[in-house]
Design brief:
Helix content of chain A: 10-25%
Strand content of chain A: 25-35%
Radius of gyration of chain A: 24 Å
Shape of chain A: flat
Number of helices of chain A: 4
Largest interface: A-C, 59 and 63 residues
Structural class of chain A: alpha/beta
Oligomer: homotrimer
Largest sheet of chain A: 11 strands, mixed
Distance between the termini of chain A: 62 Å
Chain lengths: ~350, ~350, ~350
């Protein structure tokens, strides 16, 4: 992976920051204080870590506006600083800029299976052994990884990245700048069965709806997202989903939601905007998580329950407000000790 | 996906139902009330929803035998009805019939890797980039998806469907009409190790047994089913397994069992017929779940425990009868409040 | 899979054991008492099971040094015994020896994608449709399964086995004798985002660190292991990881750790040597599990918590010593009963 080089001055312009010191130093990567070298940039969020950053091998340091009293401008011998309002965010954006060159070398690999009916945008890339179905549409600058299988009629927007061995079932649609990591499965058939009251056997309820992934959604490795049964499953703009997450049929997830690894959402659950969900959380069918609620790791929300409370943390199974749950745990520990 | 068209009268004959109204209307798909169009059929399970169904854009409505007093035969201007004893089940079967034409266009893709020793049934299909090992047997009408890898000596029955990127290890056997969704792994080596008491290091206990999947089993995306250690892992007829489920070595699962997403069964667990298991349930090794028990989501069954009770719901970790568990939760909430 | 044949005498020499009876019998496989045939060897760990083993169809029995008083040397008509200090371990090693011939037939499949920049060791094999990136290094005797995708610059040691459809991201390094089962994803980008305080949108924190897997590590099917964010994720020598396990960015796992299925470790968690972790355990970020602790299935360790206690079992969420947790459960059951 050849990264691009930029001067610190270029970075400052791109990030909307201000250089203190030598803006002509060359930067080619982001790094931690420990792993930094003479061409990397590091960041600190707190003035008290500035000294360590200046002592690292980094070429430059991204820092916040800590206030005049807190940051002493480094002497000429010290490292140049890049002062921004959100240092962690600026660091993340710098990383993206420095890796930006990778997109240019993309192409359609000779071993990819691309039917004549496929529509590929400018600069779209398809990796070795990838298989596109009929009438697939792929937007500008999107990269399909090696071994991916894209079903008939799937539509993928611009500047998306599908890593290796991803499966998209037919008809799935992805917006722009969507990232899907390796092994994820999008548009599988949901878990809906009808039991024949005469024979006791299960038959599949139709799972023929859509799966719609909006712009800037990111999906982790080996996660599984089911299509709707008759209607649609939808993940809205900017939501981030970790590895090994299960999203059932007809689930609706709002904007800027964060879902940590191994969490599962059952059929028809609704998650509103700005919700934060920890790892291994279980959300039963027809649950509603209202805007801005926070679900602690491993908590469980029973069927049809509504969780309400912007910024309120819930924990336990069945989930209750963290404060209540901690009281219960404390009471139980005390009472069990006393009784023994 | 071009679906077939059928008249409502055809459907009635196939489903064993009775038409009230115009049986000549043409049906090409199933739909929800919301997504219905002029060629789709919808269903209602309750007489009180009939009015909405008649107000939808659907061509016809599947309804139950609600009794003479409840269903008023629609006026000629209204939609035709298809009256059956189990409307949800009839709807599911109608969906299958309407999608039935898909199977006909199947073939062996030129990019599939099919050795001369493979035996393929009539109408069997192998998708692009799929890899069959030596001496694989595939039954009539079975479709192997793109990117699947089928190990040496695996046997797959008739009319099965393996979606994209599925892995079958060598020697795995599948019955008829088995469905395996994308990314699932069947026949992996189980998690069994012997610790060398001198070095403290772990060495693998042999994982060389079989994995047998019987007829009509369905397995969700990215689920993993281990082969037996020395003997076999077996999933019996009609059992349905959701996404991201783990089945350990030597597990025995009965008939018509339902297992929701992200549940895990440890080695040598036994699940009898007609058990229902919620999502994220953890079943330890050598557990036995007796016939017809119901395990609530996220519940946990400790080692060697026997769970007994047809139709009884168990919840919590360690799982206890739901009634007991709810009492404990209520007591705890009250007592903690009082004590604070 | 043609296995090799060995005489019992050969096995005894290889395993460091002693034959009682006819050492010339031919052994081609390991088996359970139930599945044994005339060429298989079985084992018993307890003198009381010896009679059943002698009554089985096996050719020979591996037994421990039960002491002179416990094992009566079988009459000439009975089966030969192979006496060792650790019978289960010897049985496991016998299995490995008997399957050893498989490695010899390996090669580079014509349909594999192997660029000129790849370096392959002696006897290394690459399966059908596997895709190697640029500058990949693969050690002697290592086998890459069908459909694997190996990213640029990945380094894989000697005598490793990657099963079908495994994904290695670029730069991942594996030691010697590493086993990765089907569908696992190694080196994916971790779940780290920065929220823009002005727009409320999430942007990815750089996930550009390394993933290092040391010698003798084994990883289960469809597990996902993230690379470091800026530094590295590392799994040390001899650790065994089951199916569907999630390992977050910057996690450090020690030597000879055992992690059962569906467990998740969040970012920067540290697990020291010889820890045993049950299934579906959730370990939050920055947790430290100290040497030799044992975490019961489904337990949960909250953020930054330190778990200490060699050989101590912890259970519940938040995890506490098993003894305490069982007391709490017993108290709760009693008190709830009394109060109702």
């Amino acid at each position: 992976m050849d990264a691009m080089k930029h001067t610190l001055r270029d970075l400052a312009e791109y990030l909307g920051g201000r250089v203190v010191g030598d803006g002509s130093v060359s930067i080619s990567s982001v790094a931690s204080l420990r792993s930094a070298d003479a061409e990397s940039i590091v960041f600190v969020e707190d003035a008290k870590h500035l000294a360590s950053a200046l002592a690292s091998s980094a070429a430059a340091v991204i820092v916040g506006n800590f206030g005049a009293g807190e940051v002493s401008v480094p002497a000429p011998a010290q490292k140049p600083l890049l002062i921004v309002s959100q240092p962690r965010l600026a660091f993340a954006r710098a990383a993206k800029l420095l890796r930006g060159s990778e997109e240019r070398t993309r192409s359609i690999h000779a071993s990819a299976s691309v039917p004549a009916s496929a529509q590929l945008g400018k600069g779209a890339a398809v990796g070795p052994r990838a298989v596109l179905g009929e009438h697939v549409k792929i937007g500008d600058g999107t990269a399909i990884g090696a071994g991916c299988v894209i079903g008939d009629g799937a539509e993928i927007g611009a500047h998306c990245r599908l890593d290796a061995n991803v499966t998209l079932y037919s008809g799935v649609t992805l917006g722009n700048r969507v990232v899907v990591q390796a092994g994820a499965v999008l548009g599988s058939e949901g878990f809906g069965y009808v039991r024949d009251s005469e024979t006791g056997r299960y038959e599949q309820f139709p799972q023929v709806g859509r799966l719609v992934i909006e712009d800037d959604v990111e999906i982790g490795a080996n996660s599984t997202l089911d299509r709707g049964a008759l209607d649609e499953t939808r993940i809205r703009r900017g939501t981030k989903i970790d590895n090994l997450v299960q999203v059932g049929h007809n689930v609706q997830i709002g904007q800027d939601v964060v879902i940590a690894a191994q969490t599962g959402l059952s059929g028809s659950a609704v998650v509103e905007d700005n919700v934060i969900i920890g790892g291994q959380v279980g959300i039963a069918d027809h649950v509603r998580i209202e805007e801005g609620a926070i679900l602690g790791a491993q908590s469980g929300i029973p069927t049809k329950k509504v969780i309400r409370g912007k910024g309120v943390v819930f924990w336990g199974t069945p989930a209750r407000p963290l404060r209540e749950y901690l009281k219960e745990l404390a009471f139980l520990a005390r009472a069990a000790k006393k009784s023994s």
